[in-house]
Amino acid sequence: QVQLVESGGGLVQPGGSLRLSCAASGSIFRNNVMGWFRQAPGKQRELVAIILSGDSTNYADSVKGRFTISRDNANNTVYLQMNKLKPEDTAVYYCTLRMGIVYWGQGTQVTVSS
Q1: Residues forming a β-bridge with 111
Q2: Is pLDDT at 100 greater than 90 in this prediction?
Q3: At a CB cut-off of 8 Å and minimum separation 6, what does 34 contact?
């Protein structure tokens, strides 16, 4: 019943920016823990950023100062603003929601290349 749909991925040059969105639908309470993971081909999936129930945030060291996670509680949407993108940021980005169990979106491709 719960669905997460990511959007906003695409191709961007190094140093550019993208804004990812994740819209949650279904039987969902507000102020859930939500986050973004990413997985590059042949690599382990890693946590990028999370936003907690009190709206505090946490980031992987590799993206601190460049990425910002935020939430629109009324619309059950979480965002990931990505600035100063690097080729190493290339990956499929997955939205997650934790509400007893963890729900996953299907992912959106982000490619950083010149």
Answers
A1: 11
A2: no
A3: 22, 24, 50, 51, 71, 78, 95, 96, 97, 98
